[in-house]
Amino acid sequence: MYPGSGTVSVSYGVKNVGGGTQKLTSVVVSVTANSSGYVLDTASGNAAVTGCLASWFSVDNTGAPTAQEVTAGSVVTGTAAVTMTDVNASQDSCQGVSPQVTISVS
Fold this sequence. Notes:
The chain is mainly β. The chain contains no helices and 9 strands. The strands form 4 sheets. Strands 1-8-6 form a 3-stranded antiparallel beta sheet, with no helix packed on it. A two-stranded antiparallel sheet has the order 2-7. Strands 3-9 form a two-stranded antiparallel ribbon.
């Protein structure tokens, strides 16, 4: 993935580990940032990458599962597409970074 070019697909599963049916309302994937807004790099133990802003990455959540009832033990799958926006600044600090994503389920 390069600024303005390429997409990384993220596949995931949401499992109902409870004993009864649960209502799945939404699933949202986002690029994880530390308190300074820097992306966390999974390739380096989730260390923050100074100078590489999480806001430079965008996530298309079109592949998220729809709202539904999920029975006990069932898994609902989804996908998200992560891209990096080309901005008018040096993005060299992001070279080789594998951004951590957060999957929020409600």
